[in-house]
Amino acid sequence: MQEWLTQTAAELGRGIEAGEICPLALTQTYLDAIDAHPLRDRIFSAVTHDRAIAEATAAKARAEQGQRLSLVDGVPISWKDLFDTAGTATEAGSDLLAGRIPETDALVLRAATSLGTVCLGKTHMSELAFSGLGLNPVKATPPCVHDADAAPGGSSSGAAASVAFGLAACGIGSDTGGSVRIPSAWNDLVGLKTTSGRLSLEGVVPLCLKFDTIGPLARSVEDAAIYLGVMEGTSGPDLRGSSIKGMRFADLRTVAQDDLEPTIADAYADALTKLRNAGADIIPLEVPALQEAMGLSPVLFTAEAYGLWRDVIEAAPHLMFPEILERFRSGKTFSGPDYVAAWAKLEQIRMEWDQATAGFDGILCPASPILPPNMQRLQDDHDYYVRSNLMALRNTRIGNLMGLCGLSLPTGVPSCGLQILGKPDCEEALLRVGAAVEQALA
């Protein structure tokens, strides 16, 4: 049974379908692993034992009757602590929301449950989702799978840890500037950032409504595709027959390859070599307007975040981690006209991006330009924290600014992810590309 803890969700689902795996035994195996894990309380903010057993029991009965609701009916997964969960504390990693217990599930959680997924519990995260590092001295900082002293990546830090440490078959997170892709990259998982508006945000604690997205952190591209479908109430895109031969990729040079750490640069170069050897055509790409778009980030993200949270924050600022508090408060320096002008400029740049990238199957760059930074230094050195947070999110933020969907894939080098950016609302095409790239990198 212990081998179940490292299998993909799709493999587990097929095992249930074949009668080789009992959903109740599978869920109990995961719950036992969670309860026995020495870092459990750093990964999970709540473990929903009773709910998980009840859902697994129902899945077992459906399997025995040949009435399964989906491929992953009976497979246990985790949910980031900003998805409302009926009767379970949902605090978005912040003492500002301490004791907040929703009465109903978030819409995507309801959709997933209706297709048989088993909810193991809620995972820790960066405070109010406003950091790409995953450091949270207020609640808990989940571990990085490769380095006990390093940050895990955020803000979906616990979601990544739950999968990387074999405590969930998949973790559902959110991505506003890279919060699915960074922890996926640093913990060698597949992370899918969906297009803004693709998945409902009803019942999800917000950060920036114009940029917030939902996505899975998984062990394979197939799993990412399945859970995209599950949250939409469908079976997900068909990835069969995807091949990298003849695919045309852009090697994004503007911004995305500035100041890469040597290990990252080497891993990225090796990944491109593997893709070329598998038959892909890779062409260097410069998009000069992207530099200007990156400069709009402070007003676009912080003004909206502070606007949404100002009253709650200023009622009890002492409850916050000072670095996160400072980042929120930076939004007060921008005016309404600043915000409107920035969005108008960004829409213009998005059109330039669309024209420059129209002929490619995907846009490639390193998921993160840096490796996971040291947690103690992040707490001791303000400048190091600020620089590390900005650098961690720099490449992923391109996808959010340009309104794209995106994937982070493991390269085979620890904590070095490969990012593939796709066109808006084209997750199906991106996932087929991702499945082909995954095969080439294996």
UniProtKB/TrEMBL annotation:
Molecular function (Gene Ontology), one example: transferase activity
SUPFAM superfamilies assigned: Amidase signature (AS) enzymes (SSF75304)
Coiled coil: none
EC number(s) on file: 6.3.5.-
Source species, domain of life: Bacteria
PROSITE patterns the record matches: AMIDASES
Residue span, Amidase domain: 26-431
Pfam family, one: Amidase
Keywords linked to the UniProt accession: Ligase, Transferase
Protein's name according to its UniProt entry: Glutamyl-tRNA(Gln) amidotransferase subunit A
Species of provenance: Phaeobacter italicus
Name of the coding gene: gatA_4
